[in-house]
Amino acid sequence: MPELPEVEALAEYLRGNAVGRPVGRIDVAALSVLKTFDPPLTALYGQAVTGASRWGKYLGLQVGDLYLITHLSRAGWLRWSDNLTATPLKPGKGPIALRVHLGTPGAAPGFDLTEAGTQKRLAVWLVDDPTKVPGIANLGPDALSLGPQDLASVLKGNTGRLKTVITDQKVIAGVGNAYSDEILHVAKLSPFATAGKLTEAQLGALHDALISVLTDAVGRSVGQQAATLKGEKRSGLRVHARTGLPCPVCGDTVREVSFADKSFQYCAKCQTGGKVLADRRMSKLLK
After folding, report:
1. Distance between CA 238 and CA 247 in Å, rounded?
2. Whether the Cβ atoms of residue 184 and residue 272 lie closer than 8 Å to each other
3. What residue ranges do the domains of the chain occupy?
4. Which ranges carry the Formamidopyrimidine-DNA glycosylase catalytic domain (predicted)?
5. Deepest of 49, 83, 165, 184, by most Cβ within 10 A of its Cβ?
6. What span, in angstroms and rounded, lies between the C-alpha atoms of 266 and 80?
7. Model confidence over 240-267: pLDDT tens digits?
């Protein structure tokens, strides 16, 4: 799933390549992706792109007084082309959900919003105010905007597990499964620690890790072409998606906890004092 660094990089890419170009046509191949109908997409035709922004993990183009906003969800992506074909998309065929032509179709660049897999969750809204997108209206403070005391305040009294809490977009916007693994590893904190019971030292370590991991990832991502962002993200990960490999800090084996539709990784030696966290998948196998 694209998280804050990748979405920020995509926004920067669009600012450099889409701003100033007129919207020529928008093709919708998956009707379920469009969550609004008024104003219609045709309201954008002929108007120039004036900006590109990020709200948490939401990405948006500003076109005149309107915003075309997307949430790429788990398997969505933005694919840029310097010369999109003018051939209309066939509904329900292939991974492309929506195509934006920036200029005369067939003679101009643009981009596709694509989604792999069978769980179609990619969503697009056209609104005159970003806060009319329900998810944006409910976002917590952006992860990179938090100072040490801000972080302490948003976690205070929260009885949830730390991993779950820092990936809750209503608490902190922008952090997802992958970067939360990286942040907790750098901070040397257990994913199962109670969020509201961290010591002052632990809160300081968490804040330092939050800012350093995301800032480093943004620095590596911004300037990359959209096609290379995924590979750049994978190359910078220390523990996430590295189950069974040695921890780059201590050499211990990176372990995994699996749930119904996702998993997370951690180093027991670095983060939990050597304790192996309960994995429901393994518990079921051992019964």
Report:
1. 7
2. no
3. 4-137, 143-286
4. 2-79
5. 184
6. 34
7. 999 999 999 999 999 999 987 789 999 9
Decide: 269 and 256 in contact? Cβ < 8 Å: no
Query: What is the number of H-type helices and E-type strands within the chain?
Result: 9, 10
> Locate tokens 């694509």: which residue?
114
Burial classification of residue 222, based on how many CB atoms lie within 10 Å of its CB (0-12 exposed, 13-18 middle, 19 or more buried): middle
- CA distances in angstroms from 132 to 26, 67, 137, 240, listed in the order given: 21, 10, 7, 34
Banded model confidence at residue 280, pLDDT cuts 50, 70, 90 = low
- Find out if CATH 1.10.8.50 is the number for domain 143-286: yes
pTM: 0.93
Residue 35: predicted pLDDT: 97
- Residue 68, class by beta-carbon neighbours within 10 Å (0-12 exposed, 13-18 middle, 19+ buried)? buried
Beta-carbon-side half-sphere exposure of residue 213 (alpha carbons within 13 Å): 28
- Right CATH for 4-137 from 3.20.190.10, 3.90.120.10, 3.30.420.40, 1.10.3720.10: 3.20.190.10
The pLDDT tens digits of the residues spanning 87-97 come to: 988 887 789 99
